Amino acid sequence: MIDVTLESVSKRFARAGDTAAVDDVDISIAAGEFFTLLGPSGCGKTTTLRMVAGFYFPTSGRIRFGAEDVTRRPPNKRDTGMVFQNYALFPHMSVAQNVAYGLKIRKVGRADSRRRVEEALGQVHLDGYGERRIDQLSGGQQQRVALARALVIRPRTLLLDEPLSNLDAKLREETRTEIRRIQKESGTTAIYVTHDQAEAMAMSDRIAVMESGRVQQIGAPQEIYHRPANAFVARFIGRSNVLSLPVVAVTDETVTVGRPDGTEIAVAAPAGHGLRPGESALVSVRPEHIGLTSATEAGALPGQVTELEFTGMATNLVVDVAGESVQVAAIDVPAGVAVGDRIGLRLNRERMWVVHP
Ligand SMILES: Nc1ncnc2c1ncn2[C@@H]1O[C@H](COP(=O)(O)OP(=O)(O)O)[C@@H](O)[C@H]1O
Ligand SMILES: [Mg+2]
Fold it and tell me: A Pfam family name for this chain (predicted)?
């Protein structure tokens, strides 16, 4: 296990014009950490991971494993284990032969190899599956074979690129718990790539949210969820209302904004928010942090229900408040509420947060 550092790493592909696929990325990953690159398709996650693996060299910047500079070292000299979306297993070989592949290349002796393959299959809970053919396994089992194959070489870093995308929803949830358990038990530093924010939050110690090749925010799941750095992160992680409201007064840590009903509310803001009275602030508030009440209740923000959708766990509503659409996810909806009704919104001030544009 080893710490991994990316220092001002950029990657430009020839013939891709001037835009960088990865643009000046700084990330420090601690030894043993489960670290995730999260962002929409095309934001540069795979390119970043491939530079850590050595399949691409950065156009500029440095990559270190511990104190070692590995920026221009070939993949087979980095001790990384890779797991891909499509498993990339050898279909004509047995499970054990697949797992042993990296050991064979490294010229590990037969007896030692057999012992380590058994140990790796045990780690992924596939004891006794060694002689099976790959096509006799389910998708989830195949992905665990791919994980065993990566772990058997005792890599310094485990790199996983959307490994659960080909599994159905239920299996995906089971397997993500498994991957996290295996990573923690093996102690290997893991870098995980996904576009699925729920998956990232469930699995990771920390997450880097990326967009257009740039890191937008790095933090623990709770931090990113409750204190998104900017409007992009607020909207990408879960759902969020990002309301543009007039600034009335400021301190270093709060911004008082005017609400559509003419009242004012002081909202927590990041240090160095730089906002001044007279400007507009973007205030993020999540749909599940808005309560429903009657339109006439004192302190409630009055609006009109324009959409209502029952999903089982919650009811999703869209409420028009002075021309702005506010999303609400309510566990308890007052009986009889329907589209067109006037309703009151109770905003939880503790859960509101000023974000950068
Ligand atoms: N080999 C390549 N040649 C040219 N452009 C590439 C290559 N690989 C990726 N890109 C471009 O770099 C950007 C980032 O891609 P990628 O890292 O695959 O994103 P992600 O994994 O987040 O979906 C995209 O615009 C993609 O088209
Ligand atoms: Mg990708």
Answer: TOBE_2
Given a cut of 80, whether residue 17 has pLDDT beyond it is no
Report the separation in Å between the CA atom of 47 and the middle of ligand 2, taken as the mean of its atom positions: 7
Does any ligand 1 atom lie closer than 6 A to the CB of residue 194? no
* Domain hosting residue 260, numbered range: 239-355
Q: Which of residues 198, 231, 264 is at a domain's end?
A: 231
Q: What is the number of the ligand 1 atom nearest to the C-alpha of 43? A: 22
Q: Whose CA is nearest to atom 18 of ligand 1?
A: 46
- Structural domain ending residue among the three candidates 213, 231, 249: 231
Confidence at residue 100, expressed as pLDDT on a 0 to 100 scale: 96
Regarding the beta carbon of 80 and ligand 1, being less than 6 Å apart is answered no
Identify the nearest ligand to the CA of 44 by its number.
1
Predicted local distance difference test score (pLDDT) of residue 118: 95
Please indicate, yes or no, whether residues 294 and 182 belong to a single structural domain of this protein. no
Alpha helices in the chain (DSSP H): 45-53, 95-105, 110-123, 139-151, 169-186, 197-203, 221-226, 231-236
Q: Does the C-beta of 41 come closer than 6 Å to ligand 1? A: yes
